[in-house]
Amino acid sequence: MHRKKIYSKKIIVHGALIIMLVGVLSFAAEHWGEGHLSVIADWIKASGNFAPFLFMAINVLGMVIMIPQTLFTVVAGVLFGAVKGTGMCLLSMAAGSAISFFLGRFVFRGRVLKRFRHDPNFMKMEMLSREHPIKVLALSRIVPVVPYSVANYLWAATGVRFLPFLVMSVVCLIPETVFLTAGGHLLSAGVRKGTVNWEMMGLAGVAALLIFFLVRAVQRSIEKDTSA
Predict the structure, then answer these.
(1) Non-local CB neighbours of 153 within 8 Å, separated by 6+ positions
(2) Which distant-in-sequence residues (6+ apart) come within 8 Å of 13 by Cβ?
(3) Segments in the chain forming alpha helices (H)
(4) Residue of 206 and 228 predicted with greater confidence
(5) Which stretch, 164-168, 181-185, 189-193, has highest mean pLDDT?
(6) Which residues does 73 contact at the CB level (< 8 Å), separation at least 6?
(7) CA 214, CA 138: separation in Å to the nearest integer?
(8) What CA–CA distances, in Å, run from 141 to 23, 85, 93, 183, 191?
(9) Rounded mean pLDDT of 189-215?
(10) pLDDT value, residue 177
(11) Which phi and psi angles does 149 have, rounded to 5°?
């Protein structure tokens, strides 16, 4: 029980720290950088469909080359809002995960196995993926023992099938993505307009609770299966 709480809190605290970092940078850009945050936000609104697609392309590329996705997710909330930002991030994760999976399975599998074959986390992933692939995929996405973009390549080197991998990689990231984009949206409203969006505050709180209970539910299910 104690370990489950630690895992849940670690995810939420990690996300909160990234939101705070982006908040400091956003405040600096807006108040000490001659309103650059507002300029960027206004440019995005005026650019139509170009800016979201450019952002998603950069996000996909970042995932393929294993840049941490948390920062992208918060920035999406700052620049595009919680609803649009969540949709963009989930689409980017789906595309980036798919590309990484195929690269990891058909191009870099030998290198991945050579590098991680004896890594404890990888060995555990490979063992559990044979017995409980869906549950372990879910847990690895909800509880990022290794960074999301790195895990894509590790999963590709196991025997897990592509479709379950892709579905769980996106679906299980919805609460965390909502939490981070809502946090980014709150930052944007606070820094640019000096207001608090209580609806977004509530949405971020609900997402954090979902993360907490999902972690506990999936871990309990795996522990029950492995002890049976």
Answers:
(1) 66, 100, 103, 104, 108, 112
(2) none
(3) 2-27, 36-46, 50-64, 70-80, 82-106, 109-116, 120-131, 133-142, 148-157, 162-171, 174-193, 198-227
(4) 206
(5) 164-168
(6) 85, 89, 176, 177, 180, 181, 184
(7) 9
(8) 25, 19, 12, 20, 31
(9) 65
(10) 87
(11) -65, -35
Cα–Cα distance, 23 to 184 (Å, whole number): 8
Tens digits of per-residue pLDDT, 132-147?
Answer: 778 778 877 877 667 7
DSSP, residue by residue, 163-213: HHHHHHHHHTTHHHHHHHHHHHHHHHHHHHH----HHHHHHHHHHHHHHHH
Two tokens, residue 50: 């170009």
Angle, helix 36-46 to helix 50-64, in steps of 10 degrees? 110
What integer pLDDT is reported at residue 60 of this predicted model?
Answer: 92
Which tokens is 221 given?
A: 């299910």
- Residue 3: predicted pLDDT: 45
3-state SS class at 221: helix
**121-134: buried (b, 16+ CB within 10 Å) or exposed (e) per residue?**
ebeebbebbeebbe
Give the three-class secondary structure for 117. Answer: coil
Map out the domains of the chain as residue ranges: 2-221
